[in-house]
Amino acid sequence: MIYLSFDIEEFDMPKEYGFDIPFERQMAISREGLTAILDLLKKHGAKATFFSTVVFAQNAPDLIERLLGEGHELASHTYYHSDFAIEHLLSSKEALESQFGVTIEGLRMPRMLEVAVSDVKQAGYLYNSSVNPTFLPGRYNKLHVPRAIFLEDGLWQIPAAVSPWRIPLFWLSFHNFPLWYYKHLLSRTVGSLSYAALYFHPWEFTDLHQKEFNFPFYVMRNTGEAMIARFDKLLSFAKEKNWKVERYKKLIESK
């Protein structure tokens, strides 16, 4: 089983590399990528969870309505992508629920920021998926976190997929590992846990080879049309393995 998710947000990543990208362009890039994702999921009959910032959802309500109409899950990526306060846990949940008439059960923090279990529970979430149980130099060391879903003080925690040797299967790995090797790691992960929880972003499905973004090669590699083709192959591989591709809430329901 593959539990698939996407973080849908205003594309402010170029600001981390010194380019002040206008908000309209941030939204245009994320809209383009999300449209490509929804088309791929529809083609393969796959379902996913979309962790959305309120800012993105309010500026792309048509795409949120589309993903909900096609059977996907909407969850919270807090209010803004680059500005966070504890009160945003509740306010983002309430804003998404009010605008789209759904119950928001899941949370993912922007950039996998740490957040207290008590704060997440108090805001009314059923699960949190904001930890990558691996070691990434300069980012985090979460080797002590379990690889599989676990219950922490009444809150379900869904770690991002890592192999039995803690090799991360996140978006950068998918872009930079040979596809055969990524598939191998994915197979070993599913074999050891019976599932893998994957996450990506819409902007990966757009061409990031833009000089002004100042991105390193490993961020730009296999983006745009190359990513669309690569992801199409990944979904086909899941079919070949008879792995269902589902929403995160289905993992909770299986417990």
Automatic annotation (TrEMBL):
Domain NodB homology: residue ranges: 1-108
Highest taxon above the source species: Bacteria
GO MF annotation terms: hydrolase activity, acting on carbon-nitrogen (but not peptide) bonds
Coiled-coil region list: none
Pfam families (alphabetical): Polysacc_deac_1
Gene Ontology terms: biological process: carbohydrate metabolic process
Matching PANTHER family: 4-DEOXY-4-FORMAMIDO-L-ARABINOSE-PHOSPHOUNDECAPRENOL DEFORMYLASE ARND-RELATED (PTHR10587:SF137), GLYCOSYL TRANSFERASE-RELATED (PTHR10587)
Protein name: NodB homology domain-containing protein
Organism for this UniProt entry: Capnocytophaga granulosa
